[in-house]
Amino acid sequence: MSAKLLSDAVPATGQTPSLKVGYVVNTYPRPSQTFIRREIRAVEAQGVKVCRFAMRRDPEPLRSDLDKAEQDATTYILDAGAGRLVRALLRAVLRHPDALRTAIRAGRAGGPGRGVLRQLIYLAEGAVLADRANAAGLQHLHAHFGTNSTDVVRYCRLLGGPGYSFTVHGPEEFDAPTALLLKQKVSESEFAVSVSAFGRSQMSRWTPFACWNRLRVVHCGIDPAHFPDPGPLPAGPGPGQPLRLVCIGRFAEQKGQMLLIEAMARATENAHLTLLGDGPLGPELRAAIAAHGLSGRVDLPGWADEAGVREALNAAHVMIMPSFAEGLPVALMEAMAAGRPAIATLIAGIPELMVDGRTGWLVPAGDVGALTDAIDAAASTSPDRLRQMGLSGRERALARHDINVEAAKLARLFRSSQQD
């Protein structure tokens, strides 16, 4: 194990690895998926040997040394090359012709972007994964996201690989459950994880009642060691000192940042916003900021690594998350663990974590008036009250999302899957 990986590890339990599991992600590692890296390290600390697999590398350069070390530890299926993929596919379907029929049926049901050709590619990836998993003696595979990574582990199982489980995050899986074949994936899995009770309820909509016992809740976790006593709030808010807001996330429609710009323009109290991130909506956001004359009140510093995120949280009074669709945002739980109250929308798993009026403000998604009112309310709140709200949020986040506790749940599920 490299020193870089050791620096991100949770304390080991002293257990000798008795179970070998493969983690499968489509693109890994990515700056927005530090929660997966954290989970893997914590599962390993539970005495489980984890082999990392991904279909491809992130095309964007990695900035974090931890991500670079994780990339070095990952096996990339597409690195096998087209020739090996085709040969593995031909061998697999000769031995397991039912898998080819399953892929063709999936392609016919999948719709745009998930047609027969795409399913055959996933089948070929599953064939290579089966070869690698069996050669490594893996007993179980776990995929993150119920999209194509779970297609691959499903095909891998049909081609003689180990059984599988998967974690559903949302909202993508809930937008197209039929095209993604969630019913079939759950029915053929050892178990399926949701990151919130809301997510489990959505999975229950698409899963036969007889399979509901396979649906489990395991939260994304944060490492308490990375969140010591929170730093003091910046000066203010008050006369001459604006409320300092930070919004962390990819610039995309579902994150609601365009609505946040409008709310900032409407707010009557003094407030300053830092939008930390980047993405396809970046040009429109910059144009909207200029159109509303907010260039002096809204900063866009770009992407940040984990240290940069912590620095941005320490410089803020309040985290703000105006999302239209989410699963259970890791950025929100990290902000709460850092002792910052939050303004967030009443969607998905967010109300399971936040308590309106105690850890921050919850507002209806898409309601620019309510979002504006929450900004003004936060700007009018005394520093002492903001500090109390932040400490309440910290207590709740650390109690519900300790990565050591959540990884122990997963390790038990992995082990129990071998006993059935």
- Overall, the morphology is elongated
Strand residue content: 15-25%
Question: For the record, what is the CATH homologous superfamily label of the largest domain?
Answer: Glycogen Phosphorylase B
| SS content category | alpha/beta
Largest sheet: 7 strands, parallel
Helix content: 40-55%
CATH class descriptor name of the largest domain: Alpha Beta
Cα distance, first to last residue? 32 Å
Q: Which strand order does the major sheet show?
A: 3-2-1-4-5-6-7
Question: Which assembly state applies to the chains in this document?
Answer: single chain
Instruction: State the low-pLDDT regions, or none.
Output: 1-14
How many β strands by DSSP? 13
What's the CATH topology name of the largest domain?
Rossmann fold
What is the domain tally?
2
Q: What is the C-alpha radius of gyration, as a whole number of Å?
A: 22 Å
Q: On the 0-100 scale, what is the average pLDDT?
A: 93
Your description of this structure?
This protein has 420 residues and is of the alpha/beta class. The chain has 2 domains: 235 residues, 3-Layer(aba) Sandwich (Rossmann fold), CATH 3.40.50.2000; 174 residues, 3-Layer(aba) Sandwich (Rossmann fold). Helices cover 45% and strands 16% of the residues. The chain is built from 18 helices and 13 strands. The strands form 2 sheets. It has a 7-stranded parallel β-sheet, sandwiched between helices. The chain has a 6-stranded parallel β-sheet with strand order 10-9-8-11-12-13, sandwiched between helices. Helix 11 links the parallel strand 8 and strand 9. The longest helix has 20 residues.
